[in-house]
Design goal:
Blueprint (H helix, E strand, L loop, with lengths): L1 H34 L3 H14 L4 H59 L7 E10 L7 E4 L12 E3 L4 E8 L4 E5 L6 E7 L3 E6 L8 E2 L12 E4 L11 E7 L5 E5 L8 E6 L19 H16 L1
Antiparallel strand pairs: 1-2, 1-12, 2-5, 3-4, 3-12, 4-5, 6-7, 6-9, 7-8, 9-10, 10-11
């Protein structure tokens, strides 16, 4: 076996050397042909290129495919990076959009506060809502105005559109507002245009029910509800909301104030009205001057007689 392997090595070694020499000679000849500057050699080179290069397209196909794969991967990488940047910009745009919406809503509420038309006798103090009760059983919010600002317990509060509640506790720097939706809230109202008097009772829902209607058949959904001023707790004529009917046929009021976004509240200074004790003194009888003179003369003549 050892002798046979040695014979094979002796046979392949000269063959490898011969092939190596042939390849080197061929490469050297190609180099010389490509370096010779002659018109005949140039024509020969062109013929060789025309014959060889088109036939090597199958050999270049894997190379072209590999290059295309590399280019596609680079393109995918760039697209992925751009997608990540677009996602970050989209998140920023969402945050900016939310901030813009909050500013727009805040601006709208402030504009509504400026456009509300109230009784000229009712001045107001505007406060910022600091916190809410956070309880499903008690509906109230905390304002940053108190007794130092002249706030008095029982005064009505409004947002930019409608009535919200009344002051139910006053501190030096803060005050608590009991909302109309609270179960302990009662509000006498007038329903327009029928003029029906009723009472709104809070039930911790966004649409409290309307109770004690004298003539429910005269009330229709969409009728305007305002405070009546009965009881002297709330001023008369403040917008409360619109009449609505629930699926059970019960009349409720859809409150005009946005209780989901209470940020600024207007506390109405209700200084009260002077009680009328003697209505007869309000209207004095008109006396004709000539009739009054005649009466005086008659009285004087009767006295002389």
């Amino acid at each position: 076996m050892a002798k046979d392997r040695r014979q094979e090595e002796d046979y392949f070694t000269p063959l490898r050397r011969l092939l190596t020499g042939v390849v080197v000679l061929v490469l050297f000849a190609i180099f010389l042909v490509w370096r010779i500057d002659s018109p005949r050699v140039e024509r020969f080179r062109a013929q060789v290129v025309d014959q060889v290069v088109p036939s090597f397209e199958w050999a270049m196909a894997p190379v072209d495919g590999a290059l295309n794969i590399v280019r596609d991967f680079q393109s995918y990488t760039r697209i992925h990076q751009q997608n990540q940047e677009l996602r970050r910009e989209l998140q920023q745009m969402k945050a900016w959009k939310e901030a813009a919406l909050q500013l727009e809503q805040e601006n709208a509420r402030l504009l509504d506060l400026n456009k509300v038309r109230l009784d000229p006798r009712l001045t107001h103090v505007t406060g910022v809502v600091m916190a809410d009760s956070g309880s499903p059983f008690r509906q109230s919010v905390l304002l940053n105005v108190g007794s130092r600002d002249g706030i008095v317990d029982g005064w009505a509060t409004m947002d930019g559109i409608g009535l919200v509640g009344r002051i139910s506790g006053v501190g030096s720097k803060t005050s608590r507002v009991l909302l109309l939706t609270d179960t302990s809230s009662r509000l006498p109202v007038t329903i327009q245009p029928s003029g029906q008097r009723a009472l709104i009772e809070g039930d911790n829902s966004a649409a409290p029910p309307i109770e004690f209607l004298e003539a429910p058949e005269q009330v229709r959904p969409g009728d305007r509800v305002i405070s009546s001023g009965d009881g002297g707790v709330f001023p008369a004529g403040l917008l409360v909301g619109r009449v609505a009917e629930d699926p059970g046929g019960r009349m409720r009021v859809r409150l005009a104030a946005d209780f989901e976004r209470l940020e600024y509240l207007r506390v109405l200074r209700q200084l009260g009205s002077e009680a009328i004790r003697d209505p007869g003194t309000l209207i004095e009888p008109e006396i004709d001057p000539e009739a009054a003179t005649g009466v005086n003369l008659t009285i004087g003549e009767g006295t002389d007689g």
